Amino acid sequence: MKQSFLFTKTRRDAPKDEVSQNAKLLIRAGFIHKEMAGVYSYLPLGFRVLNKIIGIIREEINAIGGQELFLSALQDKAVWEKTGRWDERAVDSWFKTELKGGAETGLAFTHEEPLTALMRDHISSYKDLPKYPYQFQVKFRNELRARSGIIRGREFLMKDLYSFSKNEAEHMPFYEQVKKAYHAIFKRIGIGEKTVLTFASGGSFSKYSHEFQTICAAGEDAIHLCEKCRIAVNDEIITEQTACPQCGNAQFAREKAVEVGNIFTLGTRFSDALGLQYRDETGKEMSVFMGSYGIGPGRTMGVAVELFSDEKGIVWPESIAPFSVHLVSLAGAGKSKAGKDADALYEKLQKAGIETLYDDRDARAGEKFADADLIGIPFRAVISEKTPAGKVEIKKRTSDTVRIVSVNEFLKTFHLP
Ligand code: ATP
Ligand code: MG
To answer: How many angstroms is it from 271 CA to the middle of ligand 1?
Structure first.
């Protein structure tokens, strides 16, 4: 994409009321727009990053049998009354509203209830199980505090996966598969090293649920890390759980962390309340055994910014960067030999399928470099009047070293098929 065409502008200062580092940087670099506290819009650069994260999650969830769907945000009160979760004493984060005729409706903060109700139309026999529907969908939560930028929004995207199984024996292997898939997802996104499996309380059905917590100074959660096995226990269960559930070691290091995902055995709580049953091999009616599994793609993006930035701006991991290359022409496109060389390199990169943001603007070099650092694309490629013919000046965002290499050598760094 040509930067002269991109409508977003970078800015020197973040909004005065913005306290989080992720939102400050993302707003300054033109990735997101703040509508009000806890409510953010994704602009073209930000939407590209979000979609990269979604793409990685989708691949890994499809690989374990996920089937993508898209549920409504507006909710039928009657369905939620069946589980007791319409009541604001049970759920304090509802955004509720009214239809024209006066009937109450709510904006979904999660989707266990409507999906369980919906599955009654599709599950009636043991032959219909197991099933693993999931979605990427906006959730609404009237969060009390919203000071962490896109890490805690009042409106935010969630990947929510649900499992419908015959019984616990069928459920548990899938639960373990999701664990593995989550490790793969966070590794591919580039935050794997800092993200640890964390034991949390399990609710009514199982002893534990699991969270994926990313160790990060901006975290609102505290976890207790077993440094031997790099798993953790969350703050809420540390009083009962005084030793590592995996190795028994009682030495924990307290760390601040952000929950980027979680996995939960629900048992039959929702299927009992909503009447989701199947006939087993003997003809007996049984309640479907459920699990739910969330990841916040926007929160994950915010965490990546918190982990990977410096005083100049964002430093995107390659897998989720909005573009792979930031090509900077210091000639004014097309006006000079260097401008023509830069245009030609842009064409080449486009043809090779290497995602490139081409700074073809008529601006000072200092301004262009500052913008490139702020936006944080992994490779900066410069062509100026001084660049030798057939060469390009390469710098990685993670390094200060500029190397002059041939265009062909540069293209080879991208391991194209
Ligand atoms: P937290 O304890 O941080 O409020 P939660 O336990 O409410 O999280 P879930 O309801 O399990 O989270 O949601 C699943 C996933 O959705 C979380 O792991 C997180 O990645 C994401 N998420 C939850 N709340 C928000 C939010 N307010 N803004 C952005 N992402 C969120
Ligand atoms: Mg919450």
So the answer is: 23
